[in-house]
């Protein structure tokens, strides 16, 4: 039990670290093809990371420990989240402490460290990015936690493996109004948390429109590699979390090697599919003006609130 | 501060801590001292609920005494009032009768007022803050006096056991009246909106050790009062009491943190954040009361334990943050974040300690604020099991309020820490800062240790919290152990393991990067800034600019005021001599609620002036007519 459980954690973390650049490459490739370009290939982000890691580490003068530690902390928080979230298996050694609120808080911790690094650089762009990122993060938080509320109602617990296995044994709750509303709300929140269109444009080159990229403008070499890897891992983990919550089929519920292998393969497939859909959708979306984003987030908050009330009133309580 | 005063204060704190811990361990004692005062005498009674507040107050008094001794600069009055104020803070929760409670409460108000006014000779704003504080505190005291006198008269006795015994037989209207009066008094002491107007002023203008002491201990006593009188002595009540409390708590949480997000004065920011945290505690207490009123004592225990855990955490991190802010003010003489910056290299220990406090305040793991908010969210989420339309509407909104205030507090403390301590100094005051003396750092270190212990082993408080919620009439909900285990609902939190996992992951990442990298040596380079080259310190982001997006998002709530006046050079419309830009975010509740009342009072005073023209004949006439009308009333009435 515990050997396979520990292996499941290692597989999840390893899978996220190895798969995140591939997912990013896949999404760029899908986008390139839809726009009529050839694209650089799925492996390009990995090649970029390798190149950056081999470069000299450069520290900007006038920055401090926060600037240097932030990339490592960003990757570390995301790795811990990858270990906690049931991506491939619900029967891991850490499934007892895999709490949805803890996961949300750890992701927020990563955001905070990066925002502090942006301020530590002492440049106008760093401060601007940090300010915008924290504003958006603050506005996303209510949506996420109220969706957590809606999701934990049928199970009576915020424990993630319990929620996922509960949905597996009772798939009706996924297509109930509450489940669908919570899915929609959480999907918008994930877009905002990972800095995708229409909230933020990850491939922008115009500094004045940047949110996430503005914070990390001063990074170079291995530090930049970690920042990029961290962002890619966040996207992978959050898409995986969405997949596990709203389409949990295929995930390993027992601690056997076969189930774990199937779970990993199915999870990779689901995340790749979600990523491809997101990339295809992004071709047709434009980035929202920064001060229109709160409207989008308010809408998603309303959806999550409706999810809670729907699950309360429709369950006949 | 004199050495004798410091030692005395530290002794008071240590005694309070010891007594509180003994009471939390299950001790219970009471003392009747009828000879000590005329009329009611003095009665002290200590149970687990008192013990928790005594222990928190004692610990903070101890740490702040050490800090104040190193801080110096206190007036002679302050160094003799401080031990007495510390003693009163420890003793208020031990009061066992109405007269004792009122006496200690008023002593606390007067003592804190004297301390707030400590620097009145240096700054005018201190006097104004003192007036606001005195008026609001005394109004609260009037409400408290009315409520408790009514309660004691209805109960026919004034000791707490007598009140407890008689509360069940009172009519719901009387109980509601008593509770409403007490709630006004206690929420004003806890700095809950709309009665918070004194808090940002008093905390900002009082000497730094005093702000730390007040923010970490005195506001707690408002919550103590609500739990002691509302839940214990009145024995709970109808759900509307608690819904109103939850509502004001929620409003206060969001309003407080929004103003903290707008503030660029470091101490004002921390003060508004106190208003937010007390709001969250009140949401928890309100939820506890609501569940208890609906008969679910297990969930009530969970919500109350969450509120109390958050209160203890808030005391630890807010005391630390105010002390660290004081250390900054001591070194630079500046509270304005827009003038600070670059302190992490000049005051490394203060910066590190501020970081510990800020990590607690943002309620993210591995900080100490997380466990309390996690527990609070758990209690609200499970609270939907309590039937009723009110819970179905209120609880999701409460979760949203907690989430929004947690998200905003992350922005607030990123601003406070990132702008105040990082990058480069924005002024000469910050550039010439030096680290504070060891005694100051030691006082802060004690509070930081408390933060770390609470962050990693919150479960150790579990048994104590269980004893406290039993006093408040609820069932114990939190088990012991290193992590937090819920007894009545499924769920658990292991902060120690989260912290270990984070450390391990960070170490592994750093090691892997080092193994893969070809050139492990770091080199320094000029800031790039998109090719702009290293910007000057004036070009960096300030606290005001950091808050700008949030201000635009919430402009309908905050109603910022902006004023541009352009003075052209005479006869040249296009050549400007001077452009003046003024921008501020006023406290809207204060403007809309207090200013009209103050203006009406002033107008009434002015119009009453017409009655007193200075003529003796007129005054004699008033006396004559007054006497005659009184006699007429008596003659007609009887």
TrEMBL record, chain A:
It comes from the Bacteria. Keywords: Membrane, Transmembrane, Transmembrane helix. Signal peptide: none annotated. The chain crosses the membrane at residues 6-27, 72-94, 100-122, 134-154, 235-252, 258-284, 296-314. Its main location: membrane. It is found in: Membrane. It is a multi-pass membrane protein. This is Formate hydrogenlyase HycD. The lineage of its organism: Bacteria, Bacillati, Actinomycetota, Actinomycetes, Kitasatosporales.
TrEMBL record, chain B:
Keywords: Cell membrane, Membrane, Oxidoreductase, Transmembrane, Transmembrane helix. The keyword Cell membrane applies. It comes from the Bacteria. It is a multi-pass membrane protein. The chain crosses the membrane at residues 47-70, 77-95, 101-118, 130-156, 176-198, 210-227, 239-258, 270-293, 299-324, 345-364, 384-417, 438-457, 496-517, 616-636. It is found in: Cell membrane; Membrane. Pfam families: Proton_antipo_M. Residues 95-383 form the NADH:quinone oxidoreductase/Mrp antiporter transmembrane domain. Its main location: membrane. This is NADH:quinone oxidoreductase/Mrp antiporter transmembrane domain-containing protein. It comes from Streptomyces violascens. The lineage of its organism: Bacteria, Bacillati, Actinomycetota, Actinomycetes, Kitasatosporales.
């Amino acid at each position: 039990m515990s050997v396979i459980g520990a292996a499941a954690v290692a597989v999840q973390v390893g899978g996220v670290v190895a798969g995140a650049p591939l997912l990013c490459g896949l999404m760029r490739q899908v986008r390139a093809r839809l726009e009529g370009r050839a694209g650089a290939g799925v492996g390009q982000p990995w090649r970029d990371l390798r190149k950056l890691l081999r470069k000299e580490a450069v520290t900007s003068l006038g920055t401090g420990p926060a600037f240097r530690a932030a990339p490592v902390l960003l990757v570390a928080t995301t790795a811990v989240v990858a270990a906690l979230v049931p991506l491939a298996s619900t029967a891991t050694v850490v499934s007892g402490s895999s709490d949805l609120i803890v996961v949300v808080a750890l992701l927020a911790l990563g955001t905070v460290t990066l925002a502090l690094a942006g301020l530590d650089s002492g440049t106008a762009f760093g401060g601007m990015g940090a300010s915008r990122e924290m504003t958006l993060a603050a506005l996303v938080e209510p949506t996420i936690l109220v969706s957590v509320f809606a999701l934990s109602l049928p199970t009576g617990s915020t424990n993630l493996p319990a929620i996922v296995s509960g949905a597996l044994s009772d798939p009706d709750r996924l297509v109930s109004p509450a489940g669908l509303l919570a899915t929609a709300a959480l999907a918008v929140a994930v877009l905002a948390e990972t800095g995708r269109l229409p909230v933020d444009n990850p491939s922008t080159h115009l500094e004045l429109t940047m949110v996430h990229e503005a914070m990390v403008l001063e990074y170079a070499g291995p530090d930049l590699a970690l920042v990029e890897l961290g962002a890619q891992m966040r996207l992978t983990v959050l898409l995986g979390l969405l997949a596990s919550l709203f389409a949990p089929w295929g995930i390993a519920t027992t601690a056997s090697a076969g189930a774990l292998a199937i779970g990993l393969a199915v999870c990779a497939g689901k995340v790749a599919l979600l990523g491809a859909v997101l990339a295809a959708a992004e071709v047709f979306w434009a980035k929202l003006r920064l001060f229109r984003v709160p409207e989008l987030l308010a809408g998603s908050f309303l959806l999550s609130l409706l999810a809670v009330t729907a699950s309360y009133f429709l369950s006949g309580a | 501060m004199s050495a004798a005063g410091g030692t005395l204060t530290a002794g008071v704190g240590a005694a309070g801590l010891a007594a509180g811990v003994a009471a939390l361990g299950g001790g219970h004692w009471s003392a009747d001292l009828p000879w000590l005062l005329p009329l009611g005498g003095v009665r002290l009674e200590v149970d687990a609920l008192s013990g928790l507040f005594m222990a928190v107050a004692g610990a903070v008094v101890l740490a702040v005494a050490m800090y104040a001794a190193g801080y110096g600069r206190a007036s002679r009055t302050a160094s003799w009032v401080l031990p007495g104020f510390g003693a009163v803070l420890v003793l208020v929760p031990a009061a066992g009768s109405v007269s004792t409670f009122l006496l200690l409460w008023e002593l606390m108000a007067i003592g804190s007022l004297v301390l707030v006014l400590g620097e009145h000779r240096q700054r005018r704003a201190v006097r104004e803050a003192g007036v606001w504080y005195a008026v609001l505190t005394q109004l609260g005291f009037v409400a408290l006096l009315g409520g408790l006198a009514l309660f004691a008269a209805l109960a026919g006795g004034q000791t707490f056991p007598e009140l407890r015994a008689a509360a069940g037989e009172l009519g719901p209207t009387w109980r509601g009246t008593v509770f409403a009066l007490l709630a006004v008094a206690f929420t004003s002491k806890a700095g809950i909106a709309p009665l918070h107007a004194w808090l940002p002023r008093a905390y900002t203008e009082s000497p730094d050790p005093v702000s730390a002491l007040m923010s970490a201990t005195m506001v707690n006593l408002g919550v103590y009062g609500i739990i002691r009188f509302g839940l214990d002595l009145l024995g709970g009540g109808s759900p509307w009491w608690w819904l109103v409390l939850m509502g004001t708590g929620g409003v206060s949480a969001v309003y407080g943190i929004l103003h903290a997000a707008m503030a660029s004065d470091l101490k004002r920011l921390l003060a508004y954040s106190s208003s937010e945290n007390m709001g969250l505690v009140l949401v928890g207490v309100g939820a506890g009361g609501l569940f208890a009123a609906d008969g679910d004592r297990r969930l009530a225990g969970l919500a109350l334990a969450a509120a109390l855990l958050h209160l203890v955490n808030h005391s630890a991190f807010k005391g630390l943050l105010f002390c660290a802010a004081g250390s900054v003010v001591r070194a630079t003489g500046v509270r304005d974040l827009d003038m600070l910056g670059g302190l992490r290299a000049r005051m490394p220990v203060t910066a590190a300690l501020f970081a510990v406090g800020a990590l607690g305040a943002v309620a993210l793991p591995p900080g100490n604020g997380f466990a309390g908010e996690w527990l609070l969210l758990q209690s609200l989420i499970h609270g939907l099991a309590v039937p009723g339309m009110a819970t179905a509407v209120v609880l999701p909104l409460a979760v949203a309020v907690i989430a929004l205030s947690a998200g905003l507090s992350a922005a607030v403390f990123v601003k406070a820490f990132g702008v105040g301590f990082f990058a480069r100094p924005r002024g000469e005051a910050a550039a010439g800062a030096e680290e504070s003396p060891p005694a100051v750092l030691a006082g802060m270190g004690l509070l930081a240790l408390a933060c770390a212990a609470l962050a990693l082993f919150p479960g150790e408080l579990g048994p104590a919290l269980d004893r406290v919620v039993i006093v408040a009439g609820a069932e114990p909900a939190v088990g012991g152990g290193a992590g937090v285990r819920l007894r009545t609902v499924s769920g658990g939190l292991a902060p120690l393991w989260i912290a270990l996992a984070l450390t391990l992951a960070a170490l592994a990442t750093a090691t892997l990067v080092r193994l893969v990298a070809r050139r492990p040596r770091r080199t320094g380079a000029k800031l790039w800034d998109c090719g702009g080259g290293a910007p000057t310190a004036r070009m960096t982001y300030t606290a005001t600019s950091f808050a700008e997006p949030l201000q635009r998002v919430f402009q309908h709530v905050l109603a910022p005021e902006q004023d541009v006046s352009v003075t052209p050079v005479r006869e040249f419309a296009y050549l400007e001599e001077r452009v003046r830009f003024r921008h501020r975010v006023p406290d809207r509740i204060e403007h809309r609620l207090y200013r009209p009342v103050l203006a009406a009072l002033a107008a009434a005073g002015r119009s009453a002036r017409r009655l007193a023209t200075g003529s003796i004949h007129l005054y004699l006439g008033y006396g004559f007519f007054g006497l005659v009308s009184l006699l007429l009333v008596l003659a007609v009435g009887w």
